[in-house]
Amino acid sequence: MSHFIVSARKYRPQRFQDVVGQAHVAGTLKNALASGQVAHAFLFTGPRGVGKTTCARILAKILNCENRTPEFEACNECSSCKSFNENASFNIIELDAASNNSVEHIRALTEQVRFQPQQGKYKVFIIDEVHMLSNQAFNAFLKTLEEPPPYAIFILATTEKHKIIPTILSRCQIFDFRRITVADTVAHLKSICAQEHIEAEEDALHIIAQKADGALRDALSIFDRITSGAGKKITYDAVIENLNVLDYDYFFQITDALLAEDASAVMNHFDEILRKGFDPEVFVLGLAEHLRNVLVCKDKATIGLLEVGENLRERYKQQAALAPSSFLLTALNLANECDIHFKMARHKRLHVEMALLKMCHVGRAVKGAELEKKTPDLRNAAPSAANGTRETTPIQAKPLDTTPLPVVPPPPGSVKEVSNAHTLSSKDMVDVRKGLRQGTMKVESIPMRLDAFDQLVEEEEIHRASLESRLNLENARMEWNAYAALIDSNLVRIALTNAELRLEDKLLKVIVGTTIEQNNVKGEMARILDVLRKRLHDNALKMEVVLDEQKQAQQAQQPARAARPLTNREKLDKMKEINPAIEDLIRRFDLKLGE
Prior knowledge:
Blueprint: H1 7-10, H2 23-35, E1 41-45, H3 52-63, H4 79-85, E2 92-96, H5 103-113, E3 123-128, H6 135-146, E4 152-158, H7 166-169, E5 173-176, H8 182-196, E6 199-200, H9 202-212, H10 216-230, E7 233-234, H11 236-243, H12 248-259, H13 263-275, H14 280-296, H15 310-322, H16 325-340, H17 348-360, H18 362-374, E8 382-383, E9 390-391, H19 426-438, H20 450-466, H21 473-485, H22 490-498, E10 500-504, E11 507-512, H23 515-536, E12 542-547, H24 549-561, H25 568-578, H26 581-588
Helix pairs in contact: 5-6, 8-9, 9-10, 9-11, 10-11, 12-13, 12-14, 12-15, 13-17, 14-15, 14-16, 16-17, 21-22, 21-23, 22-23
C-alpha cells in the first residue's frame, strides 16, 4: 500500500512565486532581502489556511540559503536547503504555542537563542499560534524579542492578532494575509488537476472554492475528499452531492416561478428541497445569494463580481435580462428579513413559505404602485422638504365641455344652466373636504355642480364650529385623568392622578408635591401635551410642572419628627390602617406580635 500524502502537504509552495494570493507579502519580503533590510521579528496574521506558516518557512529557508537565485528564491541545491527539505535543519526551530504556552517553554526557547547557528548565517524561530501564549509567557519573551542577537530572527504567526499584547506588536513587522479569492483557488486547483491527470469541470471547482471560504488549505482538503470518491473525473453533480450543496437549478427554477407569479410551482420546489434533507435556513441563504448574483448581472460594470463558471455566468445573464431591478431588490429585502427572523420563528417552514409568497406578488405590487403614480388623483398634496408645509398640485379634472366654470354660486334657479359641469364622486368629495381643512385646496379651483358647492360650504361651516377650542379647566382635568388611566407604570399614574391642575390663559400649571412626582410628570409631559392639544383643539396650549412649596416645606420637617424607627406595634398599626383585613387574619390564625 503506497503512502498517501494529502494535497495540502504535497503541493505546499517551496518558493514565494508559488504562494497563492499573497503577492503583496511575497513582494515586500523579496524587496527586504534584496536591500538587506531584514527585520529581526515578523508577525504574520490572517485567516486560517492562507499561507502564513508556509511563507514563514520559505523566508527561513531563503535566509540560510548559500546560493540565492537572482529572484531571491532558495536554490534547493545547497546543504542548507537540502537539510531544510529533509526536516533536518538545526537552524530553523518551530514552536507550537498552542501546546507550549507557559513561561517554562519560553525560557527554554530563550536559552536556545544564546547558541549561534552551526551552519548558515541565521537562526530562525517560527512560533505558530502565538496568541495562545499566556501573559506571563509574553512578558518573559519581551526582552529577547526586542534585543535578540544579530543572528536570531523571530517569525510569529497567528489568526487572532487582537489577542496579542501591544508590547509584542510594537516590536514586530506586521504582515496581514488576505483571504484567497475564488478565482485564485480555482486556478490553483486546475494546476493540481493537470499534475494529477484529473479531469474536472470548472463549475465543480468553483463550488469547492466557494465552500472553502477563502482558505486554500480547506479547498485542498475538500478536493482530496472529492477525488477519493469520484476518482479521476470530478463533475458538478458529484461535488454538490458530496458536499450536500443545493443545486443552482433549484434557484433558477424558483426565480423563474417568482417572476411568473406561479405560487404553486414555488411551493412545490421548496417542498422538494425539504424532502431532500436540506435545512430551510440554507435555502434562504442560497436564494439570497442567487438573487444577488442576478442583480449584479444587470450591469456590465458589476458583472465581474460574479464568482461562478462561464456556463452559469451565461444563465445568470439570461435570467437578469428577464428580471426587473425593482423585483430583485424587493425580493432580496424579503429574503434578508426572513433570514434575520428565522431563528425566532416557531414554525420554520411556514416562515420561509410566507416570504416566498410575498416574493410572488412583488411584481404585481410594483405595477400597482407605478399605475397609482401615473393616475391623476386629488390626493396629491406632498409635504415640502423646506419647511414641512404641504404644497398643492392643481387638480386634474377633465370637464365635459369648454364652458368656463362659475367661481361663485349664481342666484337660485340657475343650477340647471350649469348642469353639464363635472360632478365629483363621493370619494373625491372626501378628498376635497380633507384638502380644504388642511389648507391645501381652494374652493375656487374645484370643478363641481353648484348644488354640491352649497352642500360643501355648509358642511365646512359645521366642521369649523366643531373645531372651536374646548380649552377650559374642567375639560383639561377630564382629558388629564383619562390619559392617566391608560398609563402602565404605577408611579407615573399616581403622580398624574395626585397632581393639581391650574389653568392660566393658555398655560396649564401642574402642581406636584415631591421631586419624584415632578420627574415622573416631566417624563410624560411631551406625550400628554400632544394629547391635550388634540383633544382640546388648541395648539397654543403650554404646560409647566411646578413643586408645591407648602408640601415641600412639610416634607422637609418630617425627618426631624420621624427620626426614630417605628416599633413592631407601630408598624402593625400602620398596616391595619392600610388594610383592615389584617385584624381578621391575626384573629383567625391566632398570631402573636414578635419582639
